User: What shape does this take?
Amino acid sequence: MANRLTESLSPYLLQHAHNPVDWRPWDAAALQEAKDLERPIFLSIGYSACHWCHVMERESFENPEVAEILNTHFIPIKVDREERPDLDDLYMDAVQTLTGHGGWPMSVWLTPDLRPFYGGTYFPPQRARGMPGFIPLLKRIAELWRERRSAVVEQAAELTQDLERQASLAAGDTLPDEGVFENALQQLRSGFDSRWGGFGGAPKFPGHMAIELVLRRGSVADQRMAIRTLDAMWEGGMYDHLGGGFSRYSVDSQWLVPHFEKMLYDNAQLVCCYLAAFQKTGDSKYASTAKECLDYLLRDMLDESGGIHSSEDADSEGEEGKFYVFTPQEVRQALGDEAPRFCEAYGITAGGNFEHGASVLHLFDRNGDFPKDQDAALIGLRGKLRKFRDARVRPGKDDKVLAAWNGLALSAFAHGAQIVGDSRYLDAAKACAAFIQRELWKDGVLLRVYRRGGAHTPGFLEDYAAVANGLVDVYEATFEAHWLRWAEQLADVMRGKFEDTKDGGFFSTEAGRSDLLFRQKPGFDNAVPSGNTLAVTALLRLARHLDRDDFRISAERILTCFAPWMKKAPRAFPGMINALDLALRPSLEIVMAGDLQKAGSLLAEVHKLFLPHRVLTWAGADPTLPLHVGKASMSGLPLAFVCEKNSCMAPVEDASNLRSLLLQTSPKFFP
Assistant: This one.
């Protein structure tokens, strides 16, 4: 029997639409029902690609006994965390306060006025492996609500007050100084795994923003941390050696066995990391890895509308990783006599390194030390095995399109087009930007979610900021000024909706939301840069392109607001510290003039170099843009004007001279 989730657009909610649990979506009707019936809310938050969400559904939410308890004693509500990150952040803070850890599926019990009083993550149906059983827990909470409600309500009020205190951070009064960079780098050094790369132990996550910080601010020795991490992630099972793209994280410390879900936000950010490594080292393997990730997004994650889908599941046919792993027999079936060579190269053995004797493909040698060389024959075999794999049942896909994550994708495709020179990536960036403007920009409001022709949910801070930042990258790749002007418009709307004009920084949500206990001001960088990190980056870049001093002031007020926290816990703010780097470095402005069609060699020199603080523009894009004033080529031949610290050098027309000039102005980026 279907429940009340059948009308949802969310693939995650639709996965639960035929549970015997009478799930409601998070809406006014469900919240009012909890008040009318004076029942506690059981709030379950997860996402489509979440493996343990699937496990809890099979074990508990398909269980008639569980359904009867939930339907009788609670108002059960399902939320897709990717659609409502504000609810996820708020109640995750509650779970972490109550238990000391968090994760998904998230299980939270609320009073009818939305105050949390108990929570956790995954629960087995009955007590197991030291975890309380879900069925006895539900019965106990129902009993407490019935017999000791006043105590439960009092506990909920105290917890809510504690959460509000945590959210009310004490703002700083000055910009952080450069000591923050050394503190952050020292923390990264102390947590670095010198053998396998990465920062910290298992489970091991990519650390995109930490890698960028090391490349921006680290010494030569520090930068080896970033390069080793990028190498090891590609060598191991985190990387899909057949289809391209990275998994969410590795369950072990050597990047061998991944948690197989693939997320758009990881791959978009890792593309930028590998392209930066290519610029820093000149080693083409980093460019190749980035291209394979972008090709994966175009081949497997592109919506017909032009947007990019959110994720692919870890599971297929009810088993985690089944789509991705191989036995020697399966490889022989696909590759015939070439199978032994391939198995040797990619670590596929009779004993396996995963469940049921299967192997995760990797490039470590038998001692786990060094990757093997890749030759043309192996590349051909890899393509042949991928076609064999494509006949398998593919993991489920979350085909909704999220504004914020597509903003990250805009940057990835724009950088790819610039650095590797593939026009397909430029076309993808423009198509994605056009999609967002056409389908998600409605009467001056940016919507967050699109799926199959329908768009909904007013955007959050991260949506406006990520899209604005991505549009700056699209402008710098295309020199089509309307993308920059739309980014400016988004930034103006963002400031009006979310800025804290009293203490600085931006709230994640608009004021006046009746279904939210209080507004939060996100600063910590997690798998995705925080909304404030994205906002400060977009505002600083737009301020330099447009000479908008109000944008610069808002950006610096964000950095000032979070200054005490960056000093206290720099590992929690790698993205914002990267934005601080952008704020503290003098702007490097590169203005192209003359015939853009003949400027290829000049632009190529710009794109070869790692210059994360540079502003790139073309004087023919829009004569009203401030950086274009006084920049022209009288002959029509391409010229490059390089300006730093409000001073411009003589224009150059030769690519080698431009390179020398850029190296001279930005020596710290080139050890």
